[in-house]
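Look at a sample.

——
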Amino acid sequence: MKKAIVLGAAMLLAGAAAFAADVKFSGAFKAGYNFKYGLDTEKWTNSEKTDGDNKAEAELDADLADADGLWAISFGADQDGGFGDYYMKAKLTVDLTKALAAGGVDLGDLTIKASIGNQDTENMSSAYGNYSGRNYQQLKATSNNNDTEHTLTSIDLGYGKLVSGQYKFDPTGKLHQGISAVVTPVDGVKVSATYVQKGKGKRFFGKQGDSNWIFQGAADVDVNKFINVDKLTLKAGLFYDFANKDYAAGKDGNLNLIGAGAKVGYDKYSVGIDYVFEQKFKGATDDTKNVNHMMVKAIASNIVDGLTLDGWFRDDDFDTDGYLIGADLSYKFAKVTYHLDLEGQFGTKDGTDGKNADYVQITPYVTLSF
């Protein structure tokens, strides 16, 4: 049933685009398998592989856009919905700057976009570089309803290359909203400020809506913009989060999160690292404990034409939960990319917990863009 829905939706969108000369159709597809062996349980658990954030057998993200850039509709899948789960999540974005220009109104360097759709969460902008790809810095605005009713609306503003801003809110009430601004005072330097109310972090601050509010300040520097060495990558950044969060019935408290990272590379090779110091509540008390997180990722791109190798090390709690080692070998051939992931988790203290147990896994999958 799910395969029929995935195929039917893709054919419908592709057919609509084929017969509309002024509409552009694009997207991406990902599917594969995950073979996991528990070192403590000595058992295999096999499943589908998409992006690790959902349980659909495959992931299809598609976009329809006006050829002149006046509007765009994006269709996607996540853990709460998508093509494989019998309904679609979609978002319409309208470029008001271009719409006004078509009517003879020129806003100059000012840009305005607005979007509406059944979105559950929306990523807020940050200046931080996310060097390992772990998204430790990511804050999300959330909708009022954490079910099939998704009601976020967005307004994006910009002024040339100097500043970009976002305001995301749930018009159904209860103060679910987020606002962010990223400023580029000189080429190579970015600073940002973000505030979310009833929001969450991708890696921190718990479930949707249980943080009363979160503030983040971030900065990032591309050093090579100033020294201008050919083929060199040299970047560094930091961010700070201050959150007010419920930790027990009728009680709340403040938490701190500090992150820093860097990326160094030359030509086809690079290494990125993110480190985070987290203060979190201990159970339902007002006591806090300190937790350290780190991820390092090395990339060798196009070792030979189309062949890329990534390797990573991750430890999300230096004291308790062990560490991860992984690698991804990918080869792009005839517009399709073939991947082979190898990953292992070692050193966990509680091997009886399925989520925190030692394992090794092999994940072959394919991706393509169109």
Notes: Helices lie at 2-18, 96-102, 224-227.
